[in-house]
Amino acid sequence: MRAFVRITTALLRDRKAATAVEYGFIVALIILAMMVSLNALGDVTTAMWNNVSTKVQAAH
User: Fold this and answer.
1) Measured in whole angstroms, how far is the alpha carbon of residue 37 from the centre of its chain?
2) CA-CA 20 to 30 A from 21: which of 9, 30, 40, 46?
3) Alpha carbon of residue 55 to chain centroid
4) CA-CA distance, 39 to 45, in Å (whole number)?
């Protein structure tokens, strides 16, 4: 447990590690935004194709 605290403290004091953590958070937020937008796009696309399918079936 002491080793974990020592390593964590060293990482918090190290400016390079702090910068790496900040970049990691930025990348995580970008990925989260991409996932949310792709999910919304998937919902819209599914609704569009369901509409097309309904109209094709009604045309027969």
Assistant:
1) 9
2) 40
3) 35
4) 10
